[in-house]
Amino acid sequence: MTNKELSTLFATIADLLEIKGEVIYKILAYRRASQTLAEHGRAVSDVWKEGKLRDIPGVGQAIAEKIDELLSTGKLNFFEKLKTEVPVTLAEVLAVQDVGPKKASLFWKQLNITTVAELEKAARGGKLRDLPGLGEKSEAKIILGIEAKKRSSGRVPLGVAWPVAQELVKFLRALPGVRVAESAGSLRRMKATIGDLDFLVASDQAEPVMAAFVTHPLVARVLGHGPTKSSVELTNGLQADLRVLPPDRFGTLLQYFTGSKDHNVKLRELALDKGLSLSEHAFTRKNGQEILCANETEVYKVLGLPYIPPEMREDRGELQAAARNGLPRLIDVKDLQSDLHAHTTWSDGKLSVREMTLAARTRGLKCLAITDHSQSLGVANGLTIDRLRAQRREIDAAQADLGAGFSLLQGAEVEIRADGQLDYDDAILEDLDIVVASLHTSLRQERDKITARLLKAIESRHVDIIGHPTGRLLPDREGADLDMDAVLRAAADSGVALEINANPERLDLDDVYARRALELGCLLAINTDAHHSDHFDLAHFGVGTARRAWATADNIINTWPTEKLLHWLDERGHRRVRRPAPIEVAPPAPPPAPLTMPARPVAQPKPKPSTTRAKASKPKPSSSSARPPKSKTKKAR
DNA sequence: GCCGTTTTCGGCCCGACTGTTTTCAGTCG
């Protein structure tokens, strides 16, 4: 069983126990275990083989025994018995807004309702309103909840939620009386997928802000509307919540609603140790006296801690690290010096080499690797060897125009074929400045086979970076079934960098694997996989993922100064990296012309060595994809 | 069910909003 399958099973157990009426702390324990199993960087089955299940946070004797039984026999008697006591389909009923364990249990026991379909039929038939504690309004809300559930498709990729959040924050900031407006929640923590949006406002006049929010054109339905809190469903199906408090309470408010829940629980325990109660309003002493915090730094300071960046707030050791003053200095988007994975019209990109280069340079980058697809990826117009050579001439010409301040590399995103062979032969690979190797096809091979395939690529002395290692696409396509620990160890051994693909549809490696990779000593690269100039602006999503993995700039090869990066590529030794030419050879070169928007691939006469690296040419690559986000949302439990 | 340099037993975060409630339960975050 995979970590995710184990996690899902324990979450279902928690749901069924809750409907059954089990004590809340037992339920919370299963939920906690479900979460830590899902977020564990190693395969739980490997941990199990080592007999170290109880080293996993939230896994004690009882849950360890259940995991052991599951992995040994493929079944769990406890769960089988539980399913005879509570219909397993009731867990899905819990996913309907406004239906919790008490109502689910009531529907089941009073009306024999065990599925969402049965619930809808009963609600529409007016059968719910006469149940104790319910009325017509409750019944109507449940119908709305079922309809909302049908519209939504689960969590939304960060890249889909982000622009919506930006628009609403901008709207809130422009309202009269609003001092500060921020988005919080998992979006602020840069989680790869978002369950809902949280907005927080500092203002002395909450009600006009509330009124403006619930009537915004993006709002499809108002779920709740109180004096300091409102909830709405947006036209795209996302739920959005707004809280408003006075400015002198904004620190505790922002901290609280940024989460994560687990981080907050730990924080409040720390507060209690100091005789303080912490809520979104303030710290409160036992005598009722409040300590107000206008910003988050003050909140952490009251607890004797340094500021903890939002991306780290997952209760994954950040509070312990903060307590010993051992928080890493996380990478920042401004640290990025290069992008080592980008496409042009030579394969499936939308802009020319020069256009992409100009876009990268405009954004402050110092180095760009053009990595078009290799030959076998026909659907992406992968480059034949002849075309790769022609592209080299164009890249060299562009480099000559650019002068010393910018390095343009010819690379390739080389397909790792189904048998593990790379899509160009060694001689071609050697002649490239940089090689990104990626899986795009046959992603559903069985674990041993696809792991071996990736290991073969990592062990090739011609590969510098593994692109989007698992091949996942958010929100719905799972990554390949890889033995990730084996992959990460091999990458650490061979010095191959693993990509955090910044496209919000990928964010691959994810935060959990990226953190494990760093623990094992891997190098990482944050690349946009840009197919258009706009895609360079997605880099911050990759940086957010790296920050969630506790990455510092020195762990990431494209934060390195260009000289260091080129030296690293030299050291990897398997291709003819052209160093800046000796000065005496340089003929009176034309002054570095400002790069202008050029036309097509143009064949160019022999390149001259220019200050950065120019190059001869060769082969071609193929394959990959960038697609626009899609998506939906719903209630996340 | 988990966890512990204050505990191997006794804790385990705190508040807003809604609806059907005459004082609070359920749900959510």
Provide the β-strand percentage band: 5-15%
Biggest sheet record: 7 strands, parallel
**Spatial sequence of strands, sheet with the most strands:** 11-12-13-14-15-16-17
Share of helical residues = 25-40%
Shape: globular
Global structural class: alpha/beta
Give Rg in angstroms: 27 Å
Q: How many β-strands, per DSSP?
A: 17
Termini Cα gap: 22 Å
The parts where pLDDT drops under 50 for at least 5 residues are 579-637
pLDDT averaged over residues: 87
Number of helices: 24
SSE layout:
Blueprint: H1 3-20, H2 24-38, H3 44-49, H4 61-73, H5 77-85, H6 90-93, H7 101-111, H8 116-124, H9 136-151, E1 156-157, H10 158-173, E2 178-183, H11 185-188, E3 193-194, E4 197-203, H12 206-214, E5 219-225, E6 229-234, E7 239-245, H13 250-258, H14 261-273, E8 276-278, E9 283-285, E10 290-291, H15 296-302, H16 318-323, E11 338-342, H17 353-362, E12 367-372, H18 385-402, E13 407-415, H19 426-430, E14 434-438, H20 447-459, E15 465-466, H21 484-494, E16 497-501, H22 511-519, E17 524-527, H23 539-548, H24 562-572
Parallel strand pairs: 4-7, 11-12, 12-13, 13-14, 14-15, 15-16, 16-17
Antiparallel strand pairs: 1-3, 2-4, 5-6, 6-7, 8-9, 9-10
Helix pairs in contact: 1-2, 1-5, 1-7, 8-9, 13-15, 20-21, 22-23
The structure holds one DNA strand of 29 nucleotides.
